Amino acid sequence: MALFDDAPQLYTNHSAGRLQRRWLQALDELGGCIRAVGDDPEPILCEGGNYPGSWIEGTGTISTEVLDRFAPTVSRATHMTFARHCRADGLMPYKLTDDGPGFSQIQIVTPLARSVWKHYRLTGAPVTYLQTMYDAMTGMDAWLAANRDTRRTGGVEAFCTFDTGHDLSPRFWLIPDRCHDGDAARYDTGNPNLPYVAPDLTANVACQRRYLAKIAQELRRTPDFAQDDATRLNALWEQCFDAADDCFYDRLPNDEFLRIQSDVLLRVLACEVGDDAFFERALDRYLMNTSKFLSPYGFTSLSLDDPRFDHDYTRNSWSGPVNFLAMLRAPQAFEDHGHVAELALVERSVLSAMLATDRFPQCLDPWTGSPGFTDHYSPAILWLLDAVERNMGILPRPDGDIWFTGLATEPLTYTRTAGAVTYTMVCDGTGVQVAADGAPWLTFPAGWRVVVRDGDVRAVVGMSAGETMGTLTVRGVVTQLTLPPNHIAHFSNGQLSDIQTRGFITPHT
Questions:
Q1: Cβ distance 234 to 226 under 8 Å?
Q2: Is the pLDDT reported for residue 345 higher than 90?
Q3: Domain ranges in the chain?
Q4: Which of the listed CATH numbers 2.60.120.1440, 3.30.390.30, 3.30.460.10, 1.50.10.10 matches domain 2-392?
C-alpha cells in the first residue's frame, strides 16, 4: 500500500461497506501487479492473473491511462520499458515477461501514442520522456507500413489470432494463433483467408498517427512517418466498412467481408472514428441493443445473436463473455461523443457485479455477472477504480478539467488531491457537497457531473438516465437547473451561458 500513499481515499458510511472493502482490496491487489520484469530494474505494471508480464494491448496502454491517476511513475516506467526493448528494425514487443520481450505478433488495440500524450498532459512528465516514446512509436509505425500492408490497400493487416488478442473468437477460426514461424512479418501463405485487412488495427494506427502529430508539434519536430492519419482512415472506410450494416468487418483476400460482429466495432469507435451521428447510430443499432452487445452486465465480446456465441465465461474467451479490457476501453468513445449517461447506466450493473464478488476476473458471465476466468487481473482492478472515480468520485483529466460525479450507490466520502488543492466530496445518496482544502465550496444533487477547471465551474452534465432537477451552489451563488441525460449546462464567469442538448439511447431489443 505504500505505493499508493498519495492515492485518493474512499470512505463509506461504515468500515464494513462493500464498496470500501473492494476499493481497498483493489489497491492492495494492484500493488501485487507492479513489479520488475526480467532484467529491467524498474517496477512496471503487469497484467496479473494468468499473464505473468506486461502486454502492450492492455497493460502498456489503456491500463496505464487509469494508473496515471494512482501511480504515474509506474505508468511512465511501463511505457519506457516497452520503448527500450524495441528491435533495431522498429518492431515494438507485444509483451514483456521474465523470459524477455516477445515479438511473435503485434497485438495493438489502444493507441499507445494517445496513452503517452495523456500521461504527458496529466502528470507533467519531462520532455525527454516524450522524445523517447516518440522515437520508439515512429519506428513501430514505419515497421507496420513496411510489413503489414502486403495487399497495398492502405490498411493494416492481421496475420494471426493474437495480433488482435481475440482468443477463441470465431473471427479467427481456422487461423493460426501466432504469425508464421513466430515472425510478426510473416503469415501462412497456405491459408486462403490470410491476410485480413483489419478494421481495429487500421483504426488504431490512424489514431496513433493523429497523436504522433500532436507529439511532434509539442517537440517542434516534423512528423517522421510517411503518411498521415487520413491515409489509414480512408482505407478503413473503403476496405472495412459495410454501409448496409453500419458496421466494420475484416476484408478477406477474396475481397469479401468476414461478417462477424464483435467488439471490433467498439474498438474502432474508441479510436476516434466517426462523427456524433455515426456514434449514435452505433449506439442504437448495436451497443445499447440487448439483441446485439448489451447484456445485463456489460458489453459482450461477440454479438448476442451470433449462433457461435460462447457461454463459457470460465476460460479466456473473446467469443461472448464480457471482458474487462473491453469495458476499460469503452469510455473513450462514449465521452468523445457526449453519451456519458448511457455509459454510466451500463457501468452501474457491472459495478454491482464487482461488489458482489471477492476477486478481479478477466471475464464476467453476461447473464448473472458471476466472475469467470482468472483473478488478480489488473484491467479488472483498474476498471473498478476508474468506475468509482468516473461515477461517484473525483477524476482529474489530461486537459486540466476535474470531474465531480454524483452517482453514488451508497453514502460515501471521496478525497483526492488535484494540482495543489485537496478536494473532499461527500455523497449521501441525494446530494453532493464538495470542499476545497477543507472550505465548503459547491453542492449539487445526485445525478449530475460538475466539470471544474482552474477552480471555476465550466459545465454541469446530466448523468442519470432520467431527468434531474436541482440546485448548483458555488460559494453561495445559486443556479437552478433541470438536466435530462447527456444535456450539458455551460458556464462562463460563474454564470450559465447555454445548455447543449443531446439525446439518450434507451436499452432496447
A1: no
A2: yes
A3: 2-392, 402-500
A4: 1.50.10.10
Whether the bond into 195 is cis, omega within 30 of 0: yes
Q: How far does the chain reach from its first CA to its final CA, in angstroms?
A: 45
DSSP state, 451? E
Q: How would you classify the pairing of strands 157-158 and 196-197?
A: antiparallel
Give the chain's mean pLDDT.
Answer: 95
> Cell numbers at residue 99, please?
523470459
CA-to-CA distance for 141 and 134, rounded, in angstroms? 10
Euclidean distance between CA atoms 27 and 4, whole angstroms: 7
Nearest Cα residue to 421 out of 452, 459, 384, 381 = 452
At 407, list the grid cell.
Answer: 452517482
CA 453 – CA 401 distance, rounded (Å): 5
Q: What value does the CA radius of gyration of the chain take, rounded to a whole number of Å?
A: 22
Closest among 287, 301, 388 to 334, alpha carbons compared: 287
Q: What is the pTM of this model?
A: 0.97
| pLDDT value of residue 225 | 64
Question: How far apart are alpha carbons 408 and 427 in whole angstroms?
Answer: 7
pLDDT class for 1, splitting at 50, 70, 90?
Answer: very low
Question: Which of 198, 184, 185, 205 is closest to 141 using CA atoms?
Answer: 205
Q: How far apart are CA 162 and CA 216, in angstroms?
A: 30
| Sign of the dihedral defined by the CA atoms of residues 197, 200, 201, 205, in that order | positive
- Residues near 191 by beta carbon (within 8 Å), at least 6 away in sequence: 174, 175, 176
User: In the predicted model, is pLDDT for residue 406 greater than 50?
Assistant: yes
Nearest to 239 by CA among 145, 153, 150: 153
